[in-house]
Design a protein that fits this description.
Elements (H helix, E strand, L loop, with lengths): L11 E2 L2 H8 L3 H12 L4 E2 L2 H9 L6 H15 L2
Parallel strand pairs: 1-2
Amino acid sequence: MAGVPERDRFAEILDSDVLIWGLRGREDVVEKIKAFLRDGEKLYITPVNVAEIWAGLRKNEERKVKMIFSLRDRFAER
């Protein structure tokens, strides 16, 4: 939404499926998320997203998820 004044923008809450697909390396999803961020969009996740990701976590994904959530926590403090 480049060019749209910030006051007129909507918050983008990511769906759990989108987050999971991104975590599992679906390139189209990763690129779309990157594009949103490049355009200055604010992307949010919810406590429900966090719970769903932990509930469906594969053993080999734990390290990556912990890293992503630690980044989220660091940015949330700002």
